[in-house]
User: Fold these one by one.
Assistant:
Number 1:
Amino acid sequence: MRVSVLQENLVRGLSIVNRAVNSRPTLPVLSNVLLATEDGRLKLSATDLELSISMWVGAKVEEDGSVTVPARTFYDLTSNLSPERIDMELNTRNQTINLQCGGTDTNLRGIPAEEFPLVPEADPNAKIVIPGEVLKHMISEVAFSAAREDNRPVLTGIYTNFSGNTLTMASADGFRLTVRKTTLDFEVGEELEIIIPARTLVEIEKIIDDEDEVFVSVPDGRNQIMFHMGDIDVISNLIEGSFPEYERIIPANHSTETFLYRDEFLRACKRSEIFARDNSNIARLRVEPSSDGGPGAVNVSAQSNEMGDNTSMIDATIEGTGVEISFNIRYLIDVLNVLRDDQILLETNTSSDPGVIRPLGRDEREQFLYVIMPMQVGQ
Amino acid sequence: MYTTFPVIGHDWAVAQMQRAFNNGRVRHAFLLQGPASIGKTTFARSIAMALNCTNEPKPCGECRACRLIASNGHPDIAIVEAERIGGTLKINQIRELQRQLALRPYEGRYRVAILRRFQEAQAAAQNAILKTLEEPVGNVVLILTAEEPSAILPTIHSRCQIFNLRPLSITSTTDALERSWGVERDKASVLAHLSAGRIGWAVRSLEDEKELEFRQNAISLLEQSLNSTRVQCFQLVDGLNLDKSRTLDMLDFWQTYWRDVMLLAVGSKAALTNIDHEASLITVAQHVGQDDAQRALEATRTALIQLSGNANSRLCLEVLMLNYPKLN
């Protein structure tokens, strides 16, 4: 292999593909990044067997070839080279790559490319095309409520369903559920139902650019979902299993509707969280409709045996009966943090029924719903 | 077609496995039981190869999948074991494995987890894997290997197809050493005897002279202890500086020694293991007789089991030496 690339292109590529390098790899070769020449470009690939990222950078290829080199070392090295052309040459006998850049001469030992897991390439002509901005927005609003670690691995994933012209993503961790839907500009042929690890979707969100067009494909074996954008391919393995029937968790009706300003509500929650921390994160919401037909109020309170207590009264428009309900305040803060809407709607029943949060005044094509289980507290 | 498992010996088990695979019946959990170094992991690896091989007949040993599995580099094959022989397999390792198994295979057809020396798994770790053993999702095959069945929960046993593997016969070990490792017939025969059919040990001692030396020392220590007083025995134990896995190895050799003594004491014609010590074996056999030999053998087995648990090596050896018969 003999190839020349610009330092800044190489470093930018490495900073992206290195996101897929696990710090504690299961196979030694997984701490390496694959360098391979392909159609006059240099392909960089990294994988942790769950998430794979490939990126093509412009290069002058004099002789084809491929090798893998330690990802961390290679990045540390190249990011400290001067912004010039880097000439790389592979000695296939000892799998050592020689880098010449300016006055710097480096030899880096690698592992043969044959030992690297096969990283498939995404279909650039995939039928499903989602604007980067839409996909980014969706992931940011759904990934946060997936379980971190769970006996049921399906809950660490995001349920993803393409059907008709609707894309649905849902996540749940046993205490809360997020359902996010978007309307696509086209019809998806066959219905598609998969579970994508939340961890890899979060990485994908970071890589996507708002202006990108993201081509999504799920090849027939259905082991992987592939995202193709610009000169980057991101491939995620899917989680086996079936997602719980979440539709049944969504309450069919409610007795109280509370309209709140998100920012004000969020700050009240954050104040309560300080005191709720040593008390299992329990905070109490008292929804008080006004008796004279004017605006009502929501009382957010939390107490700590050691620190003291805090109560915030915020204005709200309330329709229906008053209610007192306790939530894990972290779960409320999480959802209020990811939403960007000015106003939200809280739907509640009794103090032992789940609450529902929806954003208000949003484009009908971008639906969001959050179900949060209440906490049982002795009076 | 599944025909060419690269396994030495264990013909019946291999044949049974191949028949099942050829009939499209792939179990999702196997437990391979038997003494150390008889090829359990090799067998497990060849099952993984057969499941993921892309050629015919399977496993071909030449395709990318087979080569990567042989070099422990296949992305869909996870090998889980205690950090060292005699250590413990921890529950965190099982959790991490379960996370991997939840994903669909990366490039092969099956995800295969090989859990080596499962007798070293903590009870919590064994319990943690029950759910996966019971109903793994998708194309997942778990292969457990274990030396000591008694250290494995009955709930694990009942969820696996069990293969009780025995040491290889002396002839097949000799043949294999001659054929696959190019050892001269005479040397191969001696090694095969000494190894007591544990091919893995024979191959290790081919590569490392120290293995043979270690065995020699282990046997002479035993013979020395039989002629010593209790105090001297304790001094012998004190002078040892072995880690747990080496102590276990030593007890394995002692076990073969007592087996030989017992064979000689009852006048059996079965082949001796320690053929290089035949003279002293005969002397010991004449002195101690069948009953004492059997007691010594049982005591060695008990010590082996205790040591694979959490017993103190030194105390264990001291007790063992007290239980051994004395020659004078």
Number 2:
Amino acid sequence: MFNLPLGTFIAFFPWPILFIGSAIVLYFIFKRQDEREEENNSKEETS
Amino acid sequence: MKTDVIVFVVYLVVLMIIGIWFTRKASKSSEHYLLGNRSIGPAVTAMTMQSSSMSGYMFMGGPALAFQHGWYALWYAIGDAGGAIVNLSVLGKRMRRLSEKLGALSPIEYLEKRYESPMVRVVGSIISIIFILAYVFAQFIAAGKALTQLTGFPYELAVVIGVSVITIYTVAGGYLAVVYTDFIQGIIMVLGVTGIAVLALNHIGLSELNASLAALDPTYLSIWGKDLAYYGQWGVIIGAILIYLIGYMGLPHVVVRHMSMKSTKTVKGAILWAATWNQLFIFIPYILGLIGIVLLPNLADPEMVIPQLTYQFFPGFLSALLLSAIMAAIMSTSDSLLMQAGTILSRDVYQRFINPNASEKKAILISRLCILAGGLIGIVIAIYEPPTVAALVIFSFGVLGNSFLVPYVASVYSKKANHIGTLCAMIGGAATNILWTLLNLESLTAVHPFLAGLIVSFIGMVIGSRFGKGPSDKIKQLIEEAKGKKALPAKIEKNIAHELSPEANNISEILADPSWSR
């Protein structure tokens, strides 16, 4: 691919996709954490 | 006057206006001046973190590395591209919470309060001041070199212009001026490199580039470097990746961005912004370095590959954009470093050890004077002795990373890590990196100085923490709180409520029974 040896292509090209993918996953994990934390806080306030 | 110089002058004026705009707000209190009153949102946090992290190295050192070693240089880019994601997800929320609970305004003050030892602050201040200043002086040299090359100004005049602007807006507007100018600079940097990349890759496509490189020397395409110089040296390659993948967690001027976030909710948005910006920006300068091998075979100074490429092949508006982008990278790092050096000198040295009773007004004045002094000394040093930018940046970066990475991570994850461990980690990590670099042990051992320093720092923390007093109960409690409240999954909570409801009903009936109350 792109006239590169296979080893070089595999070593360097997947990373941007992996990083963007992991950023999206982390976004949703943290979003869920934030929502739970907020729920918890509001429960504590009402009790 | 040439178009590029006019565009650049307008850009400098805009930066100064931002600095002056924030002057009044910054002067309200030390927390406003040093941390922007912990009010920074996700987009600005991400952009300031990344533009501060990406220095003049990205336009000079990185492309020069690719120009000299071929595709091997991309190992550094990989670590860099993932650095922000690791940094924000590992430290972001916990450090934001703990720093506020400890009432720390500087990253070194944070270490003293977390590890309950003034000695940690003394050692931390000494290491950070020396290497932050070395780092910032490298940026000033880069600013001078870039301006000289691009405008034709004499080197000395270029250094004075570049450094003066940085110093003026940082002194005036403090942390807020730094982060908002960084935001603008981050946008200019990404526009600059993507613009040049589109034109350069139009000129010579990626496949054609690799074919030309292979014709010149097939080892340019190897993951082991030109002439297979690093063949089988995984210790060097892992170090090259790790230095930027995790190294940012040890840089005081970067971790302070966690402390200044508006809330822990800022982290999730900042991760998305930073990850996207990184993938758009980081790989391109290295690719341009590779293009330079083919298009500029007789280039004398490899650090000038991007400016030379742009001015020779794409003159006009793009060269103006490039000048601004290079200066944006240099200035966004310099202002953060200068700000941090000033913060450490005023908050961790003056207010902590010289005049603990200084008023808010006096503390802010001292911070401003320290930043000004840093700028002035920087001008003199940059004019006096300009070494290569890349070597100085990698060295300072490595030493800072090796000193502080383990202490910062352990501060929020370990209840056993104590001040002895931290001192061992800081001193051991810094000393190892310095010796490894000065004695050139990398070529002897095939282990990167950063990897060696990291291992020693980690061992120092583990062994050192077995000696001396452990963290107090209060600190242990704060670390627990910094983890955040762990809510049970909704399903389990529902089941608990369901199982407890008969019992709760019985208790309610007993309490309602008048005979029981008598």
